[in-house]
Amino acid sequence: MTQPTHQPVHDPDAQPKGQPTGPVPPGASDERSLGEIVGDVTNDLTTLIKQEMDLAKVEMKEEFAKAGKGAGLLGGAGLAGYFTLLFLTLTLMFLLDNWMPLEVAALIATAVWAIVAGVLALTGRKALKESNPQLPKTQQTLKEDAQWARAQKS
Fold first, then answer.
1. Domain boundaries along the sequence of the chain
2. Which 3-state string (H, E, C) describes 42-100?
3. Tens digit of each residue's pLDDT (9 = 90 or more) over 44-67
């Protein structure tokens, strides 16, 4: 019976002994080959791009939530506007048909729906104005990344 030979497992992320694991300070010698340096920079840029995409996704979710709330409120304002017209029509119909206190009740209902429509419309408009689709955090980190990349280049 033969004994299995034990092969060492190769870890592609493992650094050879004696090699720097982080940025090399100015004035220090870097013993890595040009290919290794380019590979490291490529890996760093890939990681950076993934992180930027994740940040953009998070910011977009936040902004879409704000815009969705404003759109929902405007939808509510539209429904309230519909009821305003419905009750106004009923009020005018009852007013013309018979001169009884029922019309006063219908007019009060119409006024209430008009107030609701106005409040919802103003609140929805304000919520839409507050949403910021420009992604300020992502823009700032992209500027920082560009500065970092220029520093790596020189």
1. 51-153
2. HHHHHHHHHHHHHHHHHHHHHHHHHHHHHHHHHHHHHHHHHHHHHHHHHHHHHHHHCCC
3. 888 888 888 888 888 888 888 888
